[in-house]
Design a protein that fits this description.
With about 290 residues, this protein is of the alpha/beta class. It has a domain of about 200 residues: 3-Layer(aba) Sandwich (Rossmann fold), CATH 3.40.50.1820. Helix content is about 45%, strand content about 15%. The chain contains 13 helices and 8 strands. Strands 1-2-4-3-5-6-7-8 form an 8-stranded mixed beta sheet, sandwiched between helices. Strand 7, helix 11 and strand 8 form a beta-alpha-beta unit. Helix 3 packs across helix 4, helix 6 packs across helix 9 and helix 7 packs across helix 8. It is globular, with a radius of gyration of 18 Å. The termini are far apart.
């Protein structure tokens, strides 16, 4: 079993492959997809995912935007940096270096789950200044109660055991494991999407990076700074999200009262993969309103 995904083998049928290229920034090589024309819209996936998660959404948005979507550090086909760079500040810094290398300034940004947290951190640090930030089932606040007390220590312990990513990747050869993980998000994903998630999880390097990201994640500074967020925030939430409770958006709204709340009835944590048309419509309508304003 190869530790890393190989583009010429594992990426031979990658979604939107014709939009892919590789870029050196922040000291390592990134896999980036870009398509369309117009103002720049940046898409940032969540922990354990990759550009494949935007496979249905990117072409819809590319009708009005230059859509940019990278694989996050250590994910998919992007190289893995040193472990400390897999923290929230480290990810924000590295992504900013990529944008600088590409010479782009996003007009709008959209992040899924932990990707939304990265974008908010970039806004809070003055690295980007988009007109609006769309959070898709954003993982923006620390876990509460017992899960919050044990999650990071357990992730740190798993990362310290070199065989864990290999064991997990080996177990991912069983399609039932992949199907169970996806069902746990509350989303119904098509077989193509499930296959790409399986391909990612069968890569020990990808699994290791996702675990390291979780081990280094600390959302307390983000929560502290949320009331000072000046970027227009749109909180899009799937009502059937089993990963991040829909109630979390209400907690975020209490900290950022100016944020817009939008619900997607019946959709789960991977709502943008279930109904990319609905998410595209939200973003495109937001762009129209922003242009008029």
């Amino acid at each position: 079993m190869s530790s890393r995904l190989v583009w010429d083998r594992d990426g031979r049928d990658w979604p939107n492959r014709e939009a892919s290229r590789f870029v050196n920034a922040a000291g390592f090589r990134w896999h980036v997809q870009q398509m369309g024309h117009g103002p720049v819209l940046l898409l940032v996936h969540g922990t354990g995912a990759s550009t494949h998660s935007w496979r249905g959404l990117m072409p819809l948005l590319a009708k009005e935007f230059t859509v940019l979507a990278p694989d996050l550090p250590g994910h998919g086909f992007t190289d893995t940096p040193p472990p400390h760079r897999l923290s929230l500040p480290g990810m924000a810094w590295a992504l900013n270096e990529l944008l600088h290398e590409l010479g782009v300034r996003p007009l709008l940004v959209c992040g899924h789950s932990a990707g939304a947290a990265i974008l908010i951190r970039m806004c809070q640090d003055g690295r980007i200044a988009p007109r609006a930030l769309v959070s898709l089932n954003g993982a923006l606040l620390p876990l509460r109660g017992v899960p919050g007390q044990v999650f990071s220590p357990v992730a740190k312990m798993l990362v310290s055991l070199p065989m864990v990513p290999q064991l997990f990747a080996w177990r991912a050869g069983d399609r039932k494991l992949i199907d169970g993980l996806l069902r746990g998000t509350g989303s119904s994903i098509d077989p193509e999407g499930a296959e790409f998630y399986g391909r990612l999880i069968r890569s020990p390097a990808h699994v290791g990076a996702a675990l390291a990201m979780m081990a280094n994640w600390d959302l307390r500074p983000l929560e502290r700074d949320l009331p000072r967020l000046h970027t227009h925030l749109v909180l899009v939430t799937g009502s059937n999200d089993k990963t991040i409770s829909p109630d979390e958006s209400l907690r975020v709204h209490a900290l950022v009262p100016s944020a817009m709340l939008m619900a997607l009835p019946g959709l789960g944590h991977l709502a943008h993969e279930e109904r990319p048309d609905l998410v595209a419509d939200i973003i495109l309508r937001l762009a129209e309103v922003d242009a008029v304003a």
